[in-house]
Amino acid sequence: MNVSIDQMVDVAEDLVKFSASAMDIYRLAGDEEAGMPDLVSSVEADPNFSMSVLRIANSAAYLRGEPTVSIAQAIMRIGRKELGQMAFAAACMEGMEVLEGDLLHLKSLWRDGMMIGGIARELSAVAPTVREYSFAAGMLHSIGTMVLSSQIPDKMTEALNMSLDFDLPLHLAEEEVIGFSNAALGGAMARRWNFPEPLAMAIEFQYAPENAPEHKDIVAVMAIASLMMEQALEIDDFDQNRNELDQMLDKLDIRAKFEMANLDTDSICRKLKDGDQEAA
Predict the structure, then answer these.
(1) Which of 8, 37, 97, 279 could be joined to 59 by an S-S link, Cβ 3.0–4.6 Å?
(2) Is 254 helix (H, G, I), strand (E, B) or coil?
(3) From the CB of residue 76, how many other CB atoms can be counted at a distance below 10 Å?
(4) Angstrom distance (rounded) from CA 178 to CA 158
(5) Distance between CA 191 and CA 185 in Å, rounded?
(6) Residue 279: per-residue pLDDT
């Protein structure tokens, strides 16, 4: 059975209900008149989000000085704008728990998303406007995969097998089998749900950042962060991934910005290998 992007977005809209508590944090974080005590109380009222905030605040991307167990200190370290976008992403991810199935392990996707977001946050030195959205974009990069895996698992299994059999990137196999990729679906979902446009762009163009018509910095940073995570985790293919990363930096004409910001991608990857996976 053929399916369309609009049909999949409709299904997601019917099934996924955003976490009310996380959305409250998102609204408070964006309210300049709301005091810090109110924001701290709102975060502390959501134990799961509180743990995520502390874990993120103590990760390599944010840690400066001693680790903290204080929600107030964690918020100050992360920043209100970034916290708000994290809460927005958490609201979405928690709502998508209804989609979990045999092909979909949300804990793994959540972990990977936080890792990508952490890398992107460090890379945001090349473009400070990216910082607000970097962690949230990492956390939400796989929303299209979640819907496809839960709603058409047979097609996704076929795409995965094609990817393995022909050494083809999964998103290209998805286009062959389903007619569109998880990134295209994710971008459509983001716009249906009124995500900030930089997040929608980062999701939609994660595999082809050079094609993004706008918000090119956040799209480029997210694509590079995703490739760097692969480089950090797939030690046996380090040289191949290193070459791919060099090619992407040149293709996106962003190498000069990396050099000006004194960003060393190898050191960031080593930091992940040395244990930042657990912190993230």
Answers:
(1) 279
(2) coil
(3) 14
(4) 9
(5) 10
(6) 41
DSSP 102: T
pLDDT in tens, 233-257: 665 555 566 788 888 888 888 888 8
Of 1-5, 51-55, 276-280, the one with minimum mean pLDDT is 276-280
Contact (Cβ atoms closer than 8 angstroms) between residue 34 and residue 28: yes
Distance CA 219, CA 116 (A): 13
Question: Using an 8 Å Cβ cutoff, are 248 and 228 in contact?
Answer: no
For the stretch 177-194, what's the b/e string if a residue is b when 16 or more beta carbons lie within 10 angstroms of its beta carbon? bbebbbbbbbbbbbbebe
At 188 the pLDDT is: 97
Residue 160: name the closest of 104, 241, 231, 110 by CA: 104
Q: Can you tell me the distance from the alpha carbon of 227 to that of 123, in angstroms, rounded to the nearest whole number?
A: 12
DSSP string spanning 192-238?
Answer: HTT--HHHHHHHHTSS-GGG-SS-HHHHHHHHHHHHHHHHHH-GGGH
Whole-model pTM?
0.87
Q: How many CA atoms lie within 13 A of 266 on its CB side?
A: 6
Mean pLDDT of 46-59: 88
Q: What is the reported pLDDT for 280?
A: 39
pLDDT for 189-237, tens place per residue?
Answer: 999 999 999 999 999 999 999 999 999 999 999 999 998 887 776 655 5
Question: Taking the domain 5-16+93-279, which CATH number applies?
Answer: 1.10.3210.10
